[in-house]
Amino acid sequence: MLRARNLLLTAGAVALTFLTLGGAGNAFAAKPLRVNGSTTVNPVVTEAAEALRAERGMTIHVDTQGGSSGGIAALGDGRAEVAMISRPLEPEDRTKYPKIRFQPVQIGSDAVALVVSRDVWDGGVHALSKEQARGLYEGKIKNWREVGGPDRRVVFFNKEPGRGTWEVFAHWLYGDPKKAPLVNLPEIGANEEGRNKVSSTAGSITQLSSSWADGKKVFALAIRRDDGKTVRPDNVSIRDGSYPLSRPLSVVTDGPPRDESKILIDFLLGPRGQELVRKQGYLPLAAQGAARQ
Amino acid sequence: MIGRRWDGRLEMTAVFSWGFTSLAVATFLGMLVLFAAQSLPLWRHAGAGFLSGTTWFFRAGQFGVLPMVYGTAIVSAVALLFATPLGIGAAIFTAELLPRGARRTRLAVKTAVELLAGIPSVVYGLLGVLLLRDFVLRLLAPWDPLSGDTLLTGGLLLGIMVLPTIISLSDDALGGIAGSQRLAARALGLTRAETVLKVILPQALPGLASAVLLGLGRALGETIAVFLVIGRQDNQWPERLLSLRPLTEAGQTLTSKLGGSETFLALDDPLHWGAITGLALVLYAGVALVSWIGARLALPGGGRA
Amino acid sequence: MRRSVGRGWIDRAFWLACALCAACVGVLLAGIAGAILWRGLPVLRPGFLTAVSSEAGASGGVRDEIVGTLILITTALLVSAPLATGVALVHAVYLRSLPARRRLLVALYTANALPSILFGIAGMVVFSRFFGWGKSWLAGGLLLGLMILPTLSVALIERLRSLPRKYREAASALGLTRAQTVWSVLLPQCAGGLLSGALLGLARAAGETAPILFAAAVFSGAGLPSGLRDSPVAALPYHIFVLAQDSFDPSVESHLWGAACVLVGLVLGLSLLALPARLRAHEEAQNA
To answer: Tell me, what's the ipTM?
Structure first.
């Protein structure tokens, strides 16, 4: 029969279990490696983590909440050991987290392209200048006619704040993302969502990783530079930097990589990791001469 | 009262029961206090301007809640406009209008409705992304929408989600009316329609109202499904409040903002985090109020409580 | 007896309108079930349930996600059941006045309707940051348990209310103390109610994304948790939520539907287990 004494003993046992779990939990558990950040870099790092997990039994947690800036914030807060970013580190990052010695390691390159829907492409818009891009972003150019395209309303889907893609774009247009004007545009989170939305909306444009523009559903525009040259986002122009919106894909640690972080980063820099970079359509570091279709 | 009178010893069961209940109550109230406390930087900075502001630019420190309250209100209104007639009509059909001996059909329908209510919101979100979005895009084609992610899409998806709640609770409400009422009405020569419309419905009204209110509560608080199909466009405050134009445009609700990436970005900025928890506070208060009214209607004061 | 024609027409029109509503609802349900099954069943090979997710969700299975979801709902049950029992006992046994009992019940209904995202945000503040747990399975379990507490409490209260008074009277006549009555008479009779309420609550908890979004779940790399701090789990709803936005590959879409199928199957399975008891109780209440 249940009596108060038995009840108390049970409660005490349960409480003791919880406390043990909480306290000793850290002692015997291998510390997991926590990775957080860009959804562009994510597929590469996730597959690398899967391989390391299967072969070496490592525990690596990968997450993408908040994009590139979210990854930096997680690293700065101590919520992650490795951040994935798809933009260069900015002075603002360092000032926001002065105690962190940010050490980025580039694992590949990629570019931000302005991709448009089929009707815009077929209607004749194949390139944009910086002024035109600015006009489209700020809503001053409302119809594709004004840039040589079809008579169709412009729909600009904006990449979410905090995404590396957006920061690279804002950096190109305004020199500093903080100087970007405040705009009211529908937002897109990750790359696939962007591709889906643009391909299903007539007259639309968005910022997207160039390797996601497949030329079938969405089309990447070339950039008309100040000197008049038109540069398409392909491997050559990304490699030699003539495409203004190319960006490094990097992983960042606090100080030099140690222990598990080092294992992961060495893997990413090694042949298998670089193959993963290539598999996703990004430009690997060694960038052999073979051009992709 | 059951048992012997309290004889001065501590009754462990009572201690534990009251202890657990106090813990539960404290936790729920604690959440409210938590949001209030964490949002203090915002209130100090913006004061009541937060509640009346119509712009949200976090990089510039501007925080206004109205466009999101508007989005929440519109989306819930659409959901209720869709689900209330459909749900009450279906409930009336199964409760009143089926032939007497169709007990198995009624059981089947009730089971189906319960199962529909159990489908997780993320699966509804998936259905919304892959199916509803294109449907709405084609539906709204004459009005040339930007994309299929609109307030209307969010409202329709929510309507489908609260439909089971409204059906189930309406069915309970209708079932609570004594059968003798129906017999008397029919004996007096009223048709089925007249019985329902003039005898049953007026009596079931509090129960039906509570069904709608509890459905509304669910609509107000739904995050994941709305997040995926609403377009997430800030500052959508209409020029004319009663126009239908915003239905064809993207918007933002309290829940879609909270479930988004800004919540992570805001963690290190006290003001920004204060704004986010301010939203949580507004959401908590709003849903609690609506649900409290619904619950009071559902539980009549003079009954067995 | 002759009815005026108008009333007959109204009656038929009304019947038709209501039948139409019911038909619409039926079509919706069939459509939803059909969509999920049609797209998801082809992916459900046995290996899907036992394989780990690979290629960032493009292939493999959902083993870790299933395990994670099971861990979360088990913890939620363990947290919620004692608390719910306490609340139900307070309502049925220890509160003397009718208005007080009604206020408790109204409070439970209100708490039941609170948006789940609020639990997620509160959990992030309290567990992830204040306690320093980072992302932890226990945080997820606690939050989910708290979320389903009102559901379990109400189910138990309903069951306690429906117990015939003669049980309590007999116990009293036999000289049992209040505590003895609770443990020997009331609670054993309510085991069924607790079970069905628990199953319903778990069904809801299994499908929730928002509470675990910030404080408990990660997308990749979490198997069985080891310890308390920084021990997240993978979970089916979170997996689906991330993939729904971030699908990297056309082949991800079919796996997405497979995961959705598994989740819906789990949730419906739990609900169906509770159904007989609930329908019986419903009928009892209707006939009372």
So the answer is: 0.88
